[in-house]
Amino acid sequence: MRKFNYYTSGTASSLLLAILVILSELSKPFKTFLASIFTHHWIAKLVIVAVVFILVGFYYDQKKLFGKNIEDVAWYSTLVSLAVIFLFYIIHFVA
Amino acid sequence: MRDLVLYLHIILGLSLIVFPIIILLNLNKKSTFIKPLSILVAAISWIMLYPAAKLYLVFYPATKTLIKAGSQPWAHSIIMETKEHWGILLPIIATMAAGLVYSDKLKESKRWWILLIIVAALIGIMGRVITLGGMAR
């Protein structure tokens, strides 16, 4: 059985979530498209992120990414994703 | 039905704070229950998506209308929007932490358990802020 790389999967899924959040808020057709496939845009994001988490973890085994230790990349990707989502909604509300 | 789902959501959410604290306190002792408890926490984080989705998609829209029409629309536009999407990251963080424990990377899992506790606690606080936002006129 393939070894699961939690760091690559965490990196990919957390960054993807932030991208999906921003894209779906800035592009109404994209948000509608997500909702049309999975009944609701939130479920769409959840399913896509979960699938990417599983697939990347099994099929993309790396020790380094962009020359950095993958463990740190995963950690900072998750923190950046959390911060970006929060800041994006503040800016989106104020703008 | 709504109350049942809400209580389930709160209990499961609290367990994502309490269990990781127990894990962290026993991480250095290498207790035998750490691995099964870690798997349980990861499982709970995924199971919790069901009551979360039920509350958000079925019961929340009426509250959302009230909040957006009230004096605190930011409670939905910033806090709820952030909460619902941070909620998607919770099972990812919990699964990573559990996976590291299961791979005997106990030391590496520590910061992920701490992050899980912080994010779960913040999501709980956000839930309370949204409730207050719904009551404000």
Describe this structure in words.
The complex is a heterodimer of chains A (about 100) and B (about 140). Chain A has about 100 residues and is mostly helical. Chain A has one domain (about 5-95). Chain A has helices at about 5-25, 30-40, 40-60, 70-95, and strands at about 65, 70. In chain A, β1 (about 65) and β2 (about 70) form a beta hairpin. With about 140 residues, chain B is mostly helical. Chain B has 5 helices and no strands. Chain B has helices spanning about 1-25, 35-45, 50-70, 75-100, 105-135.
| Class by alpha and beta content of chain A | mainly alpha
Instruction: Please indicate the count of domains of chain B.
Output: 1
Q: Number of domains in the coordinates of chain A?
A: 1
Radius of gyration of chain A: 15 Å
Number of contiguous helices of chain B: 5
Summed up:
Chain A has 4 helices and 2 strands, in the order H-H-H-E-E-H. Chain A has 95 residues and is mainly alpha-helical. In chain A, helix 1 (6-26) runs antiparallel to helix 3 (41-59) and helix 2 packs across helix 3 (41-59).
Task: Describe how the helices and strands are arranged.
The complex is a heterodimer of chains A (about 100) and B (about 140).
Chain A: H1 6-26, H2 28-38, H3 41-59, E1 64-65, E2 68-69, H4 70-94
Antiparallel strand pairs in A: 1-2
Helix pairs in contact in A: 1-2, 1-3, 1-4, 2-3
Chain B: H1 2-26, H2 34-47, H3 49-69, H4 74-102, H5 106-135
Helix pairs in contact in B: 1-2, 1-3, 1-5, 2-4, 3-4, 3-5, 4-5
Throw out a few tags for this protein.
heterodimer, A: 95 residues, 4 helices, 4% strand, flat, B: 137 residues, mainly alpha, 5 helices, elongated
